[in-house]
Amino acid sequence: MNLHIASTAKVSRFGFVILLTLIALQAQYSFVHAQTSQAKAQDKPFVVEYYYKARWGYADEFIRLFRKNHYPVLKKEMELGRILRGDAAKPRYHNTEDGRWDYRVTIVWKNVEIEKLKS
């Protein structure tokens, strides 16, 4: 009877050691995979879209102020190589008031880290 209990305890300890080893290997794999994923994500372009709503009748003034204040900053960021591309668009069709936007500015940053530094 003692022999059976001792062998069961050895099997349980062996199973426990195997389980700990598998957990350690999984943790190591997850850590390495997370690092490589993060490195790949840092090299990919990062797209941000900004939606603007102008008061009714003031769209022309909004564009004038945007060109005066924001466009030079975006142009400088492009010259520095932080921004790859910047586009502006207005909607083709009318939307409901709650989903209405007048202008959308899309900025493609070189990578996510540069966009974080901006903030």
Structure description:
- The protein has 119 residues and is α+β, with helices and mostly antiparallel strands.
- It folds into two domains: 1-43; 45-118.
- Helices cover 60% and strands 18% of the residues.
- The protein is built from three helices and three strands.
- The chain has helices at 2-43, 59-80, 112-118, and strands at 46-52, 83-89, 103-109.
- The longest helix is centred in the first third of the chain and has 42 residues, at 2-43.
In short:
The chain is α+β, with helices and mostly antiparallel strands. It is 60% helix and 18% strand.
**Rg measurement, Å:** 28 Å
Structural classification: alpha+beta
Please estimate the helix content.
55-70%
- The number of strands is 3
Number of domains: 2
Helix and strand arrangement:
Elements: H1 2-43, E1 46-52, H2 59-80, E2 83-89, E3 103-109, H3 112-118
Antiparallel strand pairs: 1-3, 2-3
Features:
119 residues; alpha+beta; three-stranded antiparallel β-sheet; 3 strands
